[in-house]
Amino acid sequence: MLPSLAGSRPGTGQVPGPARLSAKASTFTESVIRDMTRLAVAHDAVNLAQGFPDFSCPVELKDAAKAAIDADVNQYAITWGAPAFRAAIAAKVAGAYPGWTVDPDTEICVTCGATEAMIATMLGLVDPGEEVIFFEPFYENYGPDAILSGATPRLVKLRAPDWSFDEAELRAAFTDRTRAIVINTPHNPTGKMFGRAELDLIAELCQRYDALVVTDEIYEHIQYLGPGGHIPPATVPGLEDRTVTVNALSKTYAVTGWRVGWTIAPAALTEGIRKTHDFLTVGAAAPLQAAGIAAMGLPAAYYAELAESYQARRDLLCAALADVGFGVSRPDGAYYVMCDTRALDPAGDDVAFARHLVADIGVACVPGSSFFADPADGRHIIRFAFPKREATLLEAAARLRTLS
Ligand SMILES: Cc1ncc(COP(=O)(O)O)c(C=O)c1O
Q1: Which secondary structure element, helix H or strand E, spans residue 66, and what is its range?
Q2: N or C: more exposed end of the chain, with fewer CB within 10 A?
């Protein structure tokens, strides 16, 4: 029996009558992460649950968004993205990764965030019953994405402490029904960065089974391995013509509420994504796409400073969590830290412990079970997010110190 990827809490199930949900919607729950944010607000807690910044976005983006609204950029953009924004995305990719050439006319689809990019990709390219491989722990959206597209998930475990996977387990996960493997690098929640050898193995298997890679690179510039640390799968030999790259303005430019993302994929795949996207949302906000052009034009120094400032936040929070007694898994990328709670919560009830933290200590985090198909695998884990001002992280640290 293949695992369900529906998340840690059972859905409400189907009830008869007009209040009946679809069979698909009955199998998953509302997001635990966004639920924790609601609890954080209710308890006036420091929100280290959901991954959104509490600092400003670059002024260049604000100015460009305001100018676009003043210029009456108010109507639908072209469904798959304003041409100038698509050209800017292609130019930025070519600058960041020499040799990776993207045709903005045929290989990009602008979406409402990475979230829509992922579901449009799954619905546009995967048929019900086909298998999609996910690494576990996984970002919680991928479960409902798989269910909604009718895909059958196959899970491959990332193992602490280095979050590597077992080659034999990955090989065994590929079958004649495999349509795609989903990669997220840098990885939420573990901070893993997929390395060259791992991607070469994935390339070998995808070619053998004629499978796609769908890669979520929303944290591409938030990584601590230095220049060259992030390897986009689309640049790996053998994957160029079978990779869908998902990305967004959300994290790199601190605008998670703008809902602007995109896919990059060969023209034949982009056609399926564009059609699906058209009927899901028509398009992303037109004036914010104009601001996206300003984002793509930011200098290399912006990205260097971004990584440096996130590294300082990571180091501050990891040290504070270790002081309190958590077992800390220092991330190589993204802006989350997974903690082993055994010393502080021997009972191993991650949901109860997270609720205690938010209600009694005043810090919100995410229970580890949200990232596993079997909730038991996450019961000694919680995840903190650190896209926050230093003052916010220091306040969280001070509150957490009352735990020990
Ligand atoms: C791995 C990953 N992908 C996608 C998203 C959502 O991206 P967006 O806000 O652009 O839809 C998140 C947000 O936390 C994420 O962690």
Answers
A1: helix 59-70
A2: N
